[in-house]
Amino acid sequence: MIKICPSILSADFLNLKKELKFLEESKIEMLHFDVMDGYFVPNLSFGSLILNSIKKASKMLMDVHLMVKRPLKFLEQFSKAGAFSMTFHVECEDNILDCINKIKSLNCKCGVAINPETPVEKIFPFLDYLDMVVVMSVKPGFGGQEFIKDSLKKVEILRNKNNFLKIQLDGGINLNIAKQIKDSGIYYAVVGSYIFCSKDIKQAIFSLKEVLG
Ligand code: DX5
Ligand code: ZN
Fold first, then answer.
1. What's the CA gap between 99 and 110, in Å, rounded?
2. What's the pLDDT tens digit per position in 1-55?
3. How many Å apart are CA 121 and CA 101, to the nearest integer?
4. Which residue out of 98, 170, 183, 200 is catalytically annotated?
5. Does the C-beta of 191 come closer than 6 Å to ligand 1?
């Protein structure tokens, strides 16, 4: 069974409380927060304030995806805001082990993300320290992009290298892609626009769960 993590980047922020309720009624366990700094990616999204608000209205775990040049300076505030897990990019400008150690010292689960153009070998030295690897299946920065099929080759390499590691596939996942990834060995599938841009959020999640288990 692959767990679905809705990315709220594509949510309707004017109706967020209602949409969160739909997710909880659909038995979603973890939300994905795409934090963007406008430098690491050419887009700016939201900070830790949104986690403070959401945790008042929801019991879902909060998974923070930091698409930022210097993640070290944000880790403390997202941990205080209630992050369950924090993922930063291996392409960032901070020392990778410093970020991993800091996230763990904050008692959060730790993930490292790799961009589509980054060879998967780049994260091999860190695998033993991680709770999760995030394989980007779109170019980071925006929701609603096309799934990059080559990302599944990285999943296979990682799966063969370390059978215990949780792999999160992030971006471009819809019902058709779900059918292609259901046996890939990933643990989490991050889904944004397919869920939040659908006419019926609960039906969209139900359709994905029918395929992903
Ligand atoms: C892209 C983000 C993804 C994205 C997922 O930079 O990391 O989480 O928002 O949204 P969709 O499912 O629309 O690709
Ligand atoms: Zn993401």
1. 9
2. 999 999 999 999 999 999 999 999 999 999 999 999 999 999 999 999 999 999 9
3. 21
4. 170
5. yes
From the CB of 145, is ligand 1 less than 6 Å away? yes
| Structural domains counted in the chain | 1
Cα 192 to middle of ligand 1, angstroms: 6
Question: DSSP 3-state assignment of 177?
Answer: helix
**Domain hosting residue 40, numbered range:** 3-212
* 75 sits in which H/E element: helix 75-80
| 150 part of the active site | no
What pLDDT is recorded for position 187?
98
The CATH number linked to 119 is 3.20.20.70
At 163 the pLDDT is 86
Residue 190 Cβ inside 6 Å of ligand 1? The answer reads yes
Which residues surround the ion ligand 2 when the cut-off is CB under 5 Å? 34, 65, 170
Token pair, residue 40, equals: 């690491």
111 ligand 1 Cβ < 6 A: no
